[in-house]
């Protein structure tokens, strides 16, 4: 009723929400071009006096960008690929296969979404520390650092995602069983049914899950910081940017940090802009509000 009488109110809410979302990002970009002493001064200036690219050069000089990007890309690619594979297979099993305990398993998967991820960081770290025959450990996981000193530690705790399984399962439930039964009658095995029939139909939700997983894995900070304390060589880009806070010139600290943040955001922003239509379609088809 209110929407019909005041249609402009809906547009006003959308515009306000867009401004509140976009302005902080634009402020970050503008601050990255500010010179020494411009950031944090009063009265506040949104635009820099002169667009200064030296902040980006300083950020690159302070950070070992090739190594940081390599670690971030490797960890993000492994996590995203694993989540897509395991979520698709588990979602198919929970949606289309009949076996004892299926509903119980699905409830257990849902229960994993109720706990904050950092709650499991200490158990994960202890498991990696005592990983047998790795990092100087013996067969019983004693004597060394385990997998905490390897780049694999960045990805191992995130290879399976409960939300991904839930998202894929909710989408696959809508696929007609008759289509799958026809394939089975023609002699297709379960793997062939999943790969040739189910996977092509789940492309929108797969791209949605890939984008969400990519963004989360790329921006992961707490776990990456914990692993970096054991081996600085596996430091990722978000952790490295935090170290820009120790820049020697305090008048340039904030612009250089913002320049580093812009560099870290671009690999996330570009895929999102290219895949946003699939993201919106995947969310709508999955029945999420």
UniProtKB/TrEMBL annotation:
One of the GO BP terms on file: transmembrane transport
Subcellular location, record wording: Cell membrane
Parts of the chain that traverse the membrane: 7-26, 73-95, 104-127, 147-168, 205-227, 256-275
GO CC annotation: plasma membrane
Keywords for the protein's UniProt record, in alphabetical order: Cell membrane, Membrane, Transmembrane, Transmembrane helix, Transport
UniProt main location, coarse: membrane
Chain ranges of the ABC transmembrane type-1 domain: 69-275
Membrane topology qualifier: Multi-pass membrane protein
Pfam family, one: BPD_transp_1
Signal peptide stretch: none
Family: Belongs to the binding-protein-dependent transport system permease family.
PANTHER family to which the protein is assigned, alphabetical: ABC TRANSPORTER PERMEASE PROTEIN MG189-RELATED (PTHR43744:SF12), ABC TRANSPORTER PERMEASE PROTEIN MG189-RELATED-RELATED (PTHR43744)
Protein's name in the database: Carbohydrate ABC transporter permease
């Amino acid at each position: 009723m209110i929407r019909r009488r005041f249609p402009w109110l809906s547009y006003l809410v959308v515009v306000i929400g867009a401004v509140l979302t976009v302005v902080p990002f634009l402020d970050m970009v503008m601050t990255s071009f500010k010179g020494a002493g411009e950031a944090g001064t009063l009265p506040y200036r949104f635009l820099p006096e002169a667009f200064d690219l030296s902040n980006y050069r300083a950020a690159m000089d302070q950070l070992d960008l090739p190594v940081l990007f390599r670690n971030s890309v490797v960890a993000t690619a492994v996590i995203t690929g694993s989540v897509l594979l395991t979520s698709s297979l588990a979602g198919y099993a929970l949606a289309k296969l009949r076996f004892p305990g299926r509903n119980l398993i699905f409830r257990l998967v849902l229960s994993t979404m109720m706990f904050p991820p950092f709650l499991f960081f200490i158990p994960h770290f202890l498991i990696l520390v005592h990983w047998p025959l790795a990092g100087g450990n013996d067969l019983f996981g004693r004597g060394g650092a385990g997998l905490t000193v390897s780049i694999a530690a960045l990805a191992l705790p995130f290879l399976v995602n409960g939300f991904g399984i839930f998202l894929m399962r909710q989408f696959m439930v809508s696929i007609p069983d008759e289509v799958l039964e026809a394939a089975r009658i023609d002699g297709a095995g379960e793997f062939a049914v999943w790969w040739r029939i189910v996977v092509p139909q789940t492309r929108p939700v797969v791209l949605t899950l890939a984008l969400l997983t990519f963004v989360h894995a790329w921006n992961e900070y707490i776990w990456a910081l914990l692993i970096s304390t054991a081996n600085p060589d596996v430091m990722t880009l978000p952790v490295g940017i935090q170290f820009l806070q120790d820049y020697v010139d305090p008048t340039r600290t904030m612009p250089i940090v913002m320049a580093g943040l812009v560099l870290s955001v671009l690999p996330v922003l570009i895929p999102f802009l290219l895949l946003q239509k699939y993201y919106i379609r995947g969310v709508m088809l999955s029945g999420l509000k």
